[in-house]
Amino acid sequence: MKSVRVVVVGAGVIGFSTAVCIAEALPLCSVTLLADKFSPETTSDGAAGILFAAKFPDIPLERQKCWFKDSFDHLLAIAQSQHSPEAGVMLSSGWQIFKEVPADKKPFWSESVIGFRNMTEAELKRFPDHKFGQAFTTIKCECSSYLPWLEKRFRKAGGKVEQRKINNLQEVSHSYDIIVNCSGLGSKTLVGDNMVYPVRGQVLKVEAPWLQHFIRDGDGKTYIYPGIHSVTVGGTRQEDDWRLQVDEEDTQSILVRCSRLEPSLTKAKVLSEWVGLRPSRRNPRVERELVQLQGRRVPVVHNYGHGGWGVTLAWGTALDALGLVRQCLREKQLQAKL
Ligand SMILES: Cc1cc2nc3c(=O)[nH]c(=O)nc-3n(C[C@H](O)[C@H](O)[C@H](O)COP(=O)(O)OP(=O)(O)OC[C@H]3O[C@@H](n4cnc5c(N)ncnc54)[C@H](O)[C@@H]3O)c2cc1C
């Protein structure tokens, strides 16, 4: 019999990854995923989905390396399996290029991706504004396919899904023993976390099937990521900007910047434009706490605030969140014995 009731709040890539990890690893828990928005309406759905990361300032580097590697290895196994087209996960090779030689020439994730090396002079010739570059193979995970695929996997493991908005954690504290908070930017109001803020991102999808390699400017603002059905070009990083509507000036700026890197893009047809708000925080919050809710101390596991790297770190942080749920279960057993 299932004895412990777990609710995961959030149906983006963090919520579904966490829910699948818990449901598959802990068959004695009954797991419900609750959210007001599901695919294709989450932030995760529009993310370019390239596996890549920058360092968070206050999290031990070893832990960040683990998050990246666990996610990479999980998605690599999918990319190299028969599930790849349905899950929207593919290998992607290309270049990250820099106008100035960066201080850190070997990012912390360089050993997790495939074939990381510096670009040769000959390769750099096609980018005359850039002095330095790195070539590697990473993964592109398209969440508009990956989220429905994860949802199927979650249901197969016995998980249940409910669509509703909650205004605070009290609303679910009576019905569940453990609450897992994966509400992204929603955590600002749901748990009153003022450290979470939006970083607005606008991207376009274009038809350019001749492009096979990704190109990312090291400043992180301009990128070209070929995908399964189209090429994602971007972008913008506008802090504390809550606008969800497409900005025509941003569209023009993206097209100009990307065509400078890849002139053939002037011939590409724009298929769609999209805006999303990255759930940013100085460091993602992956931790547990006991919260006093309706006269009871309820274990809450938080997993949110991944900023521009949520697709990259989803599986790794989900495994950490699973570890925190296990700790909650151990403490519950201990309490029951006392
Ligand atoms: C333009 C752009 C490009 C990006 N490119 C990349 C990339 O290449 N690689 C990468 O790794 N990342 C990328 N990202 C970042 C990535 O999209 C995010 O880090 C990731 O989607 C965060 O996932 P999440 O599950 O935390 O949030 P979300 O996808 O926003 O999901 C949050 C969920 O919580 C639910 N929720 C919130 N509040 C409540 C509530 N009160 N009640 C019920 N449900 C609630 C929502 O309905 C939703 O289901 C990009 C982002 C943008 C905007």
UniProtKB/TrEMBL annotation:
GO MF annotation terms: D-aspartate oxidase activity; FAD binding
Location in or out of the cell: Cytoplasm, Cytosol; Peroxisome matrix
Stated role: Selectively catalyzes the oxidative deamination of acidic amino acids. Suppresses the level of D-aspartate in the brain, an amino acid that can act as an agonist for glutamate receptors. Protects the organism from the toxicity of D-amino acids. May also function in the intestine.
Belongs to which family? Answer: Belongs to the DAMOX/DASOX family.
Q: Which GO terms describe its biological process?
A: D-amino acid catabolic process; L-aspartate catabolic process
Q: Which residues bind FAD?
A: 43-44, 307-312
A single GO cellular-component term from the record reads:
peroxisomal matrix
- Report the top EC class in one word: oxidoreductase
**What is the top-level taxon of the source organism?**
Eukaryota
Give the record's keywords alphabetically: Cytoplasm, FAD, Flavoprotein, Oxidoreductase, Peroxisome
Checking PROSITE patterns in the record gives: DAO
Reaction catalysed by this enzyme: D-glutamate + O2 + H2O = 2-oxoglutarate + H2O2 + NH4(+); D-aspartate + O2 + H2O = oxaloacetate + H2O2 + NH4(+)
- Stated name of the protein: D-aspartate oxidase
- Coiled-coil residues are none
Q: Where does D-dopa bind?
A: 223, 278, 308
Instruction: Name all FAD dependent oxidoreductase domain ranges.
Output: 5-318
Cofactor dependency: FAD
Per the record, the major location class is cytoplasm
A Pfam family in this protein?
DAO
> Under which EC number(s) is this enzyme classified?
1.4.3.1
